[in-house]
């Protein structure tokens, strides 16, 4: 075990250019920035620069194919006058709040169940992951077919089971039902992400803590509340962060299922932005709609991460 | 490690560049010119096949290669916006309805091409001219149109002894009976274009309009609008089911195809698909002339045009393609015929096209006394008018009205919204 | 005691049932739809939960033979593999640097990663199209290989950062004392240990790439360049006609590659998240 010998040979006797170059790579100060550079270039060129352009759009009267000039915050201010936008604002919070809350509760429950000793563990975990895995554009079409007013399997099943009166709720045609439907599809798609990530967090909680709690006389609920939940907090925070961001900016589900209707009751920022920006040409306003929540979300990200950092 | 990753990164883009250069025919090499054409996935797939065929013949005759790409109609706005933004993309591009107004600064003046076609085939029909001619300049060449028409279950009407509706009021009368028979009327009232496609004709037939001819004054707050809203209310109550509030563009087709709806308002796509899929309802579906009202018979039209982007580097070959594809009567005829009457010629002299005789049920497409318009008529389809259409103000007003809002309130809301859009 | 364990096991399975039904039922329905004859599909009195008039493979045939579906799938696979590979490489070295090496701006870079997710792709795609065009990659699948890492690298980096932090420093230091350079230590010591994390990041990247739609729509046009989801929705939704049979067939076939991958690597995925997510 010649541990120390090789490295102790004086550098001068082996000093060739190549070696000195490789020596450079051992310096953290050099290697660190070097390793980070590709990611930095990628993000700068393909995210930061387009983002600045998008920001410019939102602060200008940009219209497809026409020259534009800056107008300051006019887009953002005028949006607030719009009925459709105010409704969208409300929808976005309702949609995200409901969807994330449901995914959180169901995700924790599902993770707890998956953490048990199960038969067919692999199969069950695989089945649970399915909604996350299928391309969204196609799965949403599947759901459109399921909610189809003429052939709705959801209603057919409900009527067959006796829980609904024919013809069953008008899922995509009534205000609150439509929101329920899109939230349901979002939960269906996002639940696996929650469940598997929380499961990963659960798996890493040492069993000794549970045993100690049990020895102290804590029942299963108390064990969950005082052992599991606190230790899951970092995972929960991260998962909720990602999910909130993705859910707020969701586009496909609403666009395919309801196009924002009925009566604008399911419009989200992304879908309204498309309607006004791309389809009608007003990319300035469209960008403003998409970016409306950026400051809020940025703050939320910052706060969450500070919180997570402190915990760890 | 770092070298590998950088190299990998650069290599993949380098290979990419090489790949592109290899597939794209170098322009200066001999006489090999190439143009590209972006169009929608035609409802009639055979028409797309015919287009590909025509392109091959064009290449043989002129040596210009044509690359044709298709996208979904719904994906067009995103794609066009990015082509305009990057000032690169295709040469020829399909312009549906009022798109020429939206992309006007980016489209080439094609007045010369249209003049040629008009010399051969007669004037362009009004709905196509209103949309392809922007402030006096032709920004796209009209190629065909698909109009809406009343589609109904002939057998049910016969069975119940119902009169074929000649006015929208007649429809209400017949609709009541149809609903009792379990085959309600199917007109969508939702945030999609089909909803506007029916609301428009009804409003126009009552003498109403959204925005006036001057393109500035909002005229939705009028007795005609109130009449329309009242009509929709009673139709919804007595002749339709609540599901129409959730319908998409496809739903009315599907409803009549599988035997539920007794009457819908749609282009003949519903019938054509029923025929193709050999559904039991195919034999029972027929069309009749659009119903009218006190102010005449008006119908929604969907004309489609071909435009040339200003940034195109192959303007002359692109124009040649249009001259070949639309300008040669035998080719244009072949093209139209392949669509099974779904897409019809937009020129006056070709209105009695033989394809209409291929099926007796197409007779209604050649109906007398029907005026065809696009969304927003009579206002020219400027950006603001298009925004009114894209915001679905008309269907939302109707949805509000049929679900409980008072007529006056609903109309006032539409008026307010439209004025807001027109103002800024 | 044994029977109590069995009873709680059964209870767990029973409680899992609603979740499983909820997750799997849409697939069942989609698969069923893809196998139903048109006649039954458009029959509003038919039972939607079963095939009563005999299954048919015509939708799959239409999809596979009448459309360039295989080309699209090939494109999707190619783009996804390459984008995943590129993102993994970039993410790994960035994560290693952030987790191990001390240099300025480490902390802010870590936070900055998340900010990139705040800008929705439905907004970014338009200015991004200009950049892509400027790079000479307009209208080809290579544009996707270059742009997909923008939303893959941040998560991969974050995940691997957490994972690398769990690899004990001593292991590397041992190797470096033995004469290995940092790079060699990374390659030969750290990476093998971090395989579960790498697999997890790869799977996540693969899923997001496979799923992606808007960039694929914008940056590719020719039918021999487009990816599966774009192709299927483009070709099988024409005007106001949805070809439900082949559409659902496309949805089923479009999920197959990923499902296969996940079945094989599921355990890695979970254990990879275990270390990465918690730190």
Shape of chain A: flat
Second-tier CATH architecture of the largest domain in chain A: Orthogonal Bundle
Q: What about the largest sheet of chain C?
A: 2 strands, antiparallel
Task: Please report the two chains with the greatest interface, counting residues with C-beta closer than 8 angstroms to the partner's C-beta.
Answer: A-C, 102 and 101 residues
Could you name the ranges of chain C where pLDDT drops below 50 across 5 or more consecutive residues? none
Q: Rough shape of chain C?
A: globular
Average pLDDT number of chain A: 82
Query: Would you tell me which CATH topology of the largest domain in chain C applies?
Result: MetI-like fold
| Overall tally of domains of chain A | 2
Topology:
The complex is a heterotrimer of chains A (312), B (424) and C (279).
Chain A: H1 3-8, H2 17-24, H3 28-58, H4 74-79, H5 83-114, H6 121-133, H7 136-147, H8 153-160, H9 175-203, H10 207-215, H11 220-248, H12 252-257, H13 269-278, H14 283-291, H15 294-311
Helix pairs in contact in A: 3-14, 5-9, 5-11, 6-9, 9-11, 11-15, 13-14
Chain B: H1 2-23, E1 33-40, H2 45-62, E2 64-71, H3 76-86, E3 92-96, H4 99-102, H5 111-121, H6 126-132, E4 133-134, E5 137-138, E6 141-147, E7 149-153, H7 154-160, H8 168-180, E8 185-186, H9 193-205, H10 223-239, H11 251-257, E9 263-266, H12 269-276, E10 285-288, E11 297-308, H13 315-325, H14 329-337, E12 344-345, E13 370-373, H15 383-390, H16 393-402, H17 407-423
Parallel strand pairs in B: 1-2, 1-3, 8-9, 11-13
Antiparallel strand pairs in B: 3-11, 4-5, 6-11, 6-12, 7-9, 7-10
Helix pairs in contact in B: 2-14, 8-10, 10-16, 11-12, 15-17, 16-17
Chain C: H1 2-35, H2 38-41, H3 58-66, H4 69-100, H5 106-115, H6 121-134, H7 141-147, H8 149-166, H9 169-177, H10 182-193, H11 195-211, H12 214-219, H13 228-236, E1 237-238, E2 241-242, H14 244-278
Helix pairs in contact in C: 1-14, 3-14, 4-7, 4-8, 4-11, 4-13, 8-11, 8-14, 9-10, 11-14, 13-14
């Amino acid at each position: 075990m010649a541990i120390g010998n090789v490295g102790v040979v004086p550098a001068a006797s082996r000093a060739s250019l190549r070696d000195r170059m490789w020596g450079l790579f051992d310096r953290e100060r050099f290697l660190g920035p070097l390793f980070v550079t590709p990611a930095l270039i990628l993000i700068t060129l393909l995210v930061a620069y387009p983002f600045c352009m998008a920001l410019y759009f939102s602060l200008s009267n940009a219209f497809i194919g026409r020259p534009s000039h800056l107008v300051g915050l006019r887009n953002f201010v005028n949006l607030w006058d719009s009925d459709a936008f105010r409704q969208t604002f409300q929808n976005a919070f309702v949609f995200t709040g409901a969807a994330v809350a449901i995914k959180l509760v169901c995700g924790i429950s599902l993770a707890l169940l998956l953490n048990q000793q199960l038969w067919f563990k692999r199969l069950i975990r695989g089945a649970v992951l399915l909604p996350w895995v299928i391309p969204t554009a196609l799965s949403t079409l599947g759901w459109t077919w399921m909610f189809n007013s003429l052939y709705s399997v959801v209603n057919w099943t409900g009527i067959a089971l006796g829980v609904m009166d024919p013809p069953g709720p008008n899922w995509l045609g009534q205000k609150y039902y439509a929101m329920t439907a899109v939230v349901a599809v979002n939960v269906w798609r996002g639940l696996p992400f929650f469940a598997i990530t929380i499961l990963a967090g659960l798996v890493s909680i040492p069993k000794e803590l549970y045993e100690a709690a049990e020895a102290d006389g804590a029942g299963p609920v108390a064990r969950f509340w005082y052992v599991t939940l606190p230790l899951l907090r970092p995972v929960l925070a991260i998962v909720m962060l990602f999910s909130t961001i993705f859910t707020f900016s969701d586009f496909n589900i609403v666009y395919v299922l309801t196009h924002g209707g009925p009566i604008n009751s399911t419009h989200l920022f992304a879908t309204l932005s498309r309607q006004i920006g791309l389809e009608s040409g007003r990319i300035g306003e469209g960008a403003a709609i998409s970016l409306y929540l950026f400051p809020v979300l940025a703050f939320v990200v910052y706060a969450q991460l500070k919180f997570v950092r402190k915990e760890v | 490690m770092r070298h590998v990753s950088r190299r990998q990164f650069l290599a993949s883009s380098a290979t990419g560049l090489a790949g592109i250069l290899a597939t794209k025919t170098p322009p200066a090499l001999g006489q090999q010119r190439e143009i590209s054409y972006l169009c929608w996935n035609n409802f009639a797939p055979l028409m797309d096949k015919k287009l590909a065929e025509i392109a091959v013949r064009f290449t043989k005759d002129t040596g210009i290669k044509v690359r044709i790409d298709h996208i979904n109609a719904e994906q067009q706005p995103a794609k066009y916006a990015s082509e305009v933004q990057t000032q690169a993309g295709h040469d020829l591009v399909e312009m549906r309805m009022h798109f020429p107004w939206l992309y006007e600064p980016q489209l080439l003046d094609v007045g010369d091409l249209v003049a040629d076609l008009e010399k051969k085939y007669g004037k362009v029909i009004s709905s196509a001219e209103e949309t392809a001619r922007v402030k006096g300049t032709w920004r796209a060449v009209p190629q065909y149109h698909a109009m809406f028409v009343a589609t109904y279950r002939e057998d049910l009407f016969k069975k119940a002894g119902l009169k074929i509706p000649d006015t929208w009021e007649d429809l209400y009368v017949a609709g009541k009976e149809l609903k009792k028979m379990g085959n309600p009327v199917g007109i969508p009232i939702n945030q999609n274009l089909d909803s506007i496609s029916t609301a428009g004709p009804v409003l126009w037939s009552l003498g109403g309009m959204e925005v006036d001819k001057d393109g500035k004054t909002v005229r939705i707050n009028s007795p005609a609008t109130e009449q329309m809203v009242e009509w929709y209310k009673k139709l919804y109550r007595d002749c339709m089911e609540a599901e129409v509030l959730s319908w998409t563009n496809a739903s009315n087709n599907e409803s009549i195809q599988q035997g539920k709806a007794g009457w819908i308002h749609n282009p003949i796509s519903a019938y054509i698909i029923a025929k193709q899929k050999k559904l039991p309802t195919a034999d029972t579906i027929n069309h009749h002339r659009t119903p009218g009202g006190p102010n005449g018979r008006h119908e929604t039209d969907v004309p489609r045009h071909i435009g040339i982007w200003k940034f195109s580097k192959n303007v002359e070959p692109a124009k040649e393609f249009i001259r070949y594809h639309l300008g040669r009567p035998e080719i244009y005829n072949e093209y139209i015929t392949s669509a099974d009457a779904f897409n019809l010629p937009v020129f006056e002299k070709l209105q009695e096209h033989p394809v209409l005789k291929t099926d007796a049920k197409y007779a209604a497409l050649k109906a007398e006394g029907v005026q065809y318009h696009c969304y927003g008529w009579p206002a020219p389809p400027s950006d603001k008018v298009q925004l009114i259409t894209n915001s679905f103000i008309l269907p939302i007003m109707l949805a509000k009205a049929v679900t409980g809002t008072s007529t006056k309130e609903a109309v006032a809301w539409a008026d307010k919204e439209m004025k807001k859009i027109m103002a800024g | 005691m044994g029977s109590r364990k069995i009873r709680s096991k059964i209870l767990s399975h029973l409680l899992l049932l609603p979740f499983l039904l909820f997750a799997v039922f849409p697939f069942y329905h989609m698969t069923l739809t893809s196998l139903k004859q048109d006649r039954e599909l458009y029959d509003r009195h038919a039972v939607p939960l079963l095939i009563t008039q005999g299954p048919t493979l015509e939708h799959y045939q239409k999809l596979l033979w009448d459309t360039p579906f295989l080309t699209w799938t090939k494109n999707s696979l190619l783009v996804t593999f390459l984008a995943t590979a590129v993102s993994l490489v970039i993410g790994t070295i960035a994560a290693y640097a952030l987790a191990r090496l001390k240099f300025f701006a480490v902390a802010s870079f870590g936070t900055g990663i998340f900010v990139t997710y705040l800008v929705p792709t439905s907004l970014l795609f338009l200015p991004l199209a200009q950049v892509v065009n400027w790079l000479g990659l307009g209208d080809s699948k290579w544009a996707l290989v270059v742009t997909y890492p923008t939303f893959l690298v941040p998560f991969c980096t974050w995940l691997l950062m957490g994972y690398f932090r769990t690899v004990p420093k001593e292991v590397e230091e041992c190797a470096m004392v033995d004469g290995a350079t940092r790079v060699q230590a990374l390659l030969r010591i750290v990476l093998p240990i971090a395989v579960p994390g790498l697999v997890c990041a790869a799977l996540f990247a693969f899923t997001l790439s496979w799923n992606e739609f808007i960039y694929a729509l914008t940056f590719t046009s020719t039918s021999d360049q487009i990816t599966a989801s774009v192709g299927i929705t483009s070709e099988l939704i024409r005007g106001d006609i949805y070809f439900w049979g082949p559409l659902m067939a496309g949805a089923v076939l479009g999920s197959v590659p990923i499902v296969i991958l996940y079945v094989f690597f599921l355990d890695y995925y979970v254990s990879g998240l275990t270390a990465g997510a918690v730190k």
